[in-house]
Amino acid sequence: MKLFEPLEIGSLTLPNRILMAPLTRCRAAENHVPSDLMATYYAQRASAGLIIAEATMAMEGNSAFWKEPAIYSDAQIAGWKKVTDAVHEKGGLIFLQIWHGGRACHPLLNDGAQPVAPSAIAIENNQVRTPEGMQPCVVPHELRLDELPEIINGFKKAAENAKNAGFDGVEVHGANGYLLDEFLRDGANQRTDEYGGSIENRARLMLEVLQAVCDVWGSDCVGLRISPLNSFNSMVDSNPIALSTWLAKRLNDFNLAYLHVMRGDFFQQQTCDVLTPIRENYHGVLIGNMGYDAAEAEAAIAAGKLDAVAFGVSFIANPDLPARIQTGADLNTPNPDTFYSFGEAGYTDYPALSD
Fold this sequence. Notes:
By secondary structure, the chain is of the alpha/beta class. The chain contains eleven helices and 14 strands. The strands form four sheets. Strands 3-14-13-12-11-10-5-4 form an eight-stranded parallel β-sheet. Strands 1-2 form a two-stranded antiparallel ribbon. Strands 6-9 form a two-stranded parallel sheet. Strand 13 (about 285-290), helix 9 and strand 14 form a beta-alpha-beta unit. The longest helix is centred in the middle third of the chain and has 17 residues, at about 150-165. It is globular and about 55 Å long.
């Protein structure tokens, strides 16, 4: 199977092309410190060609999930070091996804601080999980030009901290209606300065962050995740094909480890093919994500449409997903009720074939 051929990304050789997508699971301890339970969870899934760890707060004061991990404090770095050590002991590779929640953050999670965004437009179709229950999103503060360097520096510091925590690389989160994606797509970005208007201007912050992170790691240890179609968090773009094509060409200026593309929309508000123009215009390693089963993933790689596929929900319920795909074994059924709960149930208790 093509899925089990090695893949070169930068200086790393992935043992297979079945990647674990970043999955927010809300199992961090107090102060967003990665827990010992998280180390167990990721080590269980070390047979993935590459683990891309969950969305992780690059800087303080931007929580959007209550119990998500972060990477700005010494305690958080130490917590992540336990995770990377556990994965490496099992022979795995792991990148950290560094992230800013933007307008998806909530004052109840951030000591009353108003969230920030490219424009003062609230998310309309989603709620935020808080200690006081699910809460509607609030109108964000429109970032001033003089506030943007602090965000870029925050991502750079997060990249440095990820290196100290023992990761093999980092993925910049540019998807799903969080800060960098909010700047990128014109439904959320209505600025009239050099960070708004044209695609080039809207992509400016993402590219500046990407460059800062590459300066820390070297570009071949850095990935980028985008979701040109996904309407999650009230997102839309007037021309996702043009956006995807422009960005694919521009990213060739970096020698990235990979480009990770969510191909669709959770809510089917926009339906078109963004992978084909990206593949035609992007010269690096391309990872597909969203709704693939093993057969479709194998076919896409065999046809040269993708280089690898990132599996999400399948890895939640199947810690040994590559072995199950290789042997044709049945997959465990995931329990959505435990996706964002706080304990072992539905997290580290899914059986492997060897159990």
